[in-house]
Amino acid sequence: MKPERIYPRMIINLSAIRQNASRVVEICHSKGIELVGVTKLSLGNPLIAKSMRAAGVDKIGESRLKNIENLYHAGIPGPFQLLRIPMLSEIPKAIRLVDEFLVSMPQVALEIDRCAKELDKNVNIIYMIDVGDLREGVWFENAVEEILSTVGNLKHAILRGIGTNLGCYGGVLPTKENMGLLVEIKKTLESRLGYELIVSGGSTVTLKMLEDNTLPDGINQFRVGEGIILGTDATGDRDIPYLRQDTVILEAEVVEVDYKPSVPVGEIGKDAFGRTPLFEDRGLRKRIILAIGEQDVKPDGLIPFEQGLKVLHASSDHLIVDTTESDKEFRPGDIVRFRMSYGCALRAFTSPYVEKVFIED
After folding, report:
1. Which end of the chain is more exposed for a tag (fewer CB within 10 A), N or C?
2. Quick one: average pLDDT of 331-346?
3. Alpha helix (H) residue ranges in the chain
4. Residues 6 or more apart in contact with residue 9 via CB below 8 angstroms
5. Residues in domain Alanine racemase N-terminal (predicted)?
6. At what angle do helices 65-73 and 46-55 cross, to 10 degrees?
């Protein structure tokens, strides 16, 4: 008897993810760059983390302490880097699990130091600097003064380096100028501190600078998740040519097939999410409904494999797809396959209603 297939489901190809990780490791290590494999997209999935470590990533990066705890108990070897600035309330627990913290304020660094002292343990910190994206970090003009004044009060929280985040909030791309600014701050700090610092300046979007040989010398740590798990670069708006994109595939089941008008009949208000939907009158169209919705995916991030399909809209639990231009005749029970954008995959990994199936090539 064949095992029951449950839909919707994600097919996660661990071989492909491992190949992607190996390729990024090769590129980074050839330039003397430490690679942090970021698993936050997958909720810190142990199988994905294990695949990354098997491929040679130097440590695992996670934004949520709960995921690091799960990885630790699953036997995944560290070191672990906590990507999100720790909440003060979670630092006592985090000290026991985390090897490297990203921080952006003196108060947080001092609390890490205090908790580390209680356990007679040393931990590393990377002080984040905002070079323009407007997410976390001390503003670059104030960085040297703030970091030096903070480090002087630390005994168990060791400043291992500085870092920045680009692309995730403001969409700012890495350039020679903003990366160079980070390197100059590093040099100033090193001259005052008397030892070398890590510069954690790279993420998936920064891989393009490695490809083009435009990354300034001195950037020596990358934090890469999307590129490894999906083979894409959302901020740079590209498929990364030397990585695989068949790593994560979504499958959803058809529950209705019908011809309907392309514009609703009646007075239009807002949809369930407070949006006012816009419709183009294209006459009578053939549509299917899939048993998946906003609670599971980001509809505009779904990329159908089947030619001629167009995702129209979704409610919490229903996805409407126009199939008029497709040569395939869909019926209830048919399965439709999609690639996903980063935001879409993030929601699918998070949804308990999407089955996760792991395969090897």
Report:
1. N
2. 98
3. 14-30, 46-55, 65-73, 91-97, 106-118, 143-151, 176-193, 207-211, 226-229, 342-350
4. 250, 251, 354, 355, 356, 357
5. 12-227
6. 70
The predicted pLDDT at position 169 comes to 84
* Predicted structure pTM score: 0.95
Give the angle 355-358-361 at the CA atoms, nearest 5°. Answer: 145
Q: Is the pLDDT of residue 2 over 70?
A: no
Phi-psi region of 253 (alpha: psi -120 to 50; beta: other; left: phi over 0): beta
Residue 186 token pair: 């590093």
CA atoms within 13 A on the CB side of 175: 8
* pLDDT one-digit tens code per residue, 129-141: 999 999 999 999 9
Question: What distance in Å separates the CA atoms of residue 132 and residue 275, rounded to the nearest whole number?
Answer: 31
Mean pLDDT of 41-47: 98
Rounded to 5°, angle at Cα 189 from 198 and 187: 70
CA 84 to chain centre: 12
Give the residue among 256, 202, 240 at the shortest CA–CA distance from 224.
202
Res. 272: pLDDT tops 90: no
How many Å separate Cα 172 from the centre of its chain?
16
* CB distance 124 to 99 below 8 Å: yes
Q: Both ends of the chain: CA-CA distance in Å?
A: 23
Q: Is 186 a catalytic residue?
A: no
- Please tell me which residue in 40, 50, 59, 186 is annotated as part of the active site: 40
Instruction: Tell me the two tokens of residue 322.
Output: 């126009």
Confidence category of residue 258, pLDDT binned at 50, 70, 90 = very high
How confident is the model over 52-61, as a mean pLDDT?
99
In this predicted model, what pLDDT tens digit does every residue of 62-121 receive, in sequence order? 999 999 999 999 999 999 999 999 999 999 999 999 999 999 999 999 999 999 999 999
Residue 158 has phi, psi (to 5 degrees) of -95, 125
ω into residue 299 within 30 of 0, thus cis?
Answer: no
| 187 phi and psi angles, rounded to 5 deg | -65, -40
